[in-house]
Amino acid sequence: MTGPDLILARGTPEHLRSLLTPYFSEQTRPLLEDALALVKRYQAESGLSEVRFRLEQVTTDSCRKFHTDHVHLRLLCTYHGLGTEWVPGDLLSTDTMNAAGIPSNISSDMVRRIETGHIALLKGNKWPGHEGRGVVHRSPPVSHLPVNNRLRLLLTVDEPTACGMSENSNPTIRQKNSLSSEICC
User: Fold this and answer.
1) What is the dihedral of CA 79, 179, 60, 182, to 10 degrees?
2) Please, are residues 58 and 182 in contact by the beta-carbon 8 Å criterion?
3) Which of 18, 55, 70, 157 could connect to 75 by a Cys-Cys bridge, CB 3.0–4.6 Å?
4) Are 177 and 150 in contact (CB under 8 A)?
5) How far, in Å, CA of 168 to CA of 173, rounded?
6) Which helix (H) or strand (E) holds 44?
7) Which tens digit of pLDDT belongs to each residue from 107-140?
């Protein structure tokens, strides 16, 4: 795929459009418009006026361990490649969870995958009434796959200050071959 490895920004959909349009070619502009439509859907569910927008080309086993996010609500959409894996809450038993709300043993028959192109709204640890009990999920392991099958294009939308996002780094664009590490939280 062409384009930056990472596009990270915060703002309203209109602000994001003006900030990010220069990083999208005429051919990839429909991707930006679709992502901004998902931002609006997230806004409708979360009630937030601003969001944190992250569109990333992932080629590693980033976020490979099952975890819950320290946010209220997170929207995920994998545009290309394997979708996020998750475990249904009704299969988790509280007596097998550690202090972070992650089961010590997750068998492969418990794991589900979000289909490519589908939208997931995941409640995080901060969701009212579910404090400490967010949706258990992970990025699918890809390191065992042939190199040309590892790429995922993942959109993440959540609250504007998630993962320490600040106005000082708005937007952050990481080009191919940069030395920055994968961003995950």
Assistant:
1) -70
2) yes
3) 157
4) no
5) 13
6) helix 29-46
7) 788 889 999 999 999 999 888 887 667 888 889 9
Neighbour tally for 140: CB within 10 Å = 19
C-alpha to C-alpha distances, 8 to 11, 131, 175, nearest whole angstrom: 11, 27, 12
Report how far Cα 181 is from the mean position of its chain's Cα atoms.
Answer: 16
Number of H helices, E strands in the chain: 2, 9
Whose structure tokens read 């569109």?
A: 55
Residue entry with tokens 């920055």: 180
Please give the model's pTM, rounded to 2 decimal places.
Answer: 0.87
Contacts by 97-102, CB closer than 8 A, 24 or more apart:
100/67, 100/68, 100/132, 101/68, 101/125, 101/132, 101/133, 101/134, 101/136, 102/66, 102/67, 102/68, 102/136
Q: How far apart are CA 165 and CA 159, in angstroms?
A: 9
Could you write out the DSSP letters of every residue in 81-150? SPPPEEE-GGG--GGGB-TTS-BS---GGG-EEPPTT-EEEEE-TTSTT-TT---EEEPPP-TTS-GGG-
Q: What is the mean predicted confidence (pLDDT) over 38-42?
A: 98
Across 19-35, average pLDDT: 95
Of the two residues 105 and 75, the one the predictor is more confident about is: 75
CA–CA gap between residue 151 and residue 148 (Å, rounded): 7
pLDDT at 15 over 70: yes
Name the one residue in this structure whose structure tokens are 């940069």: 178
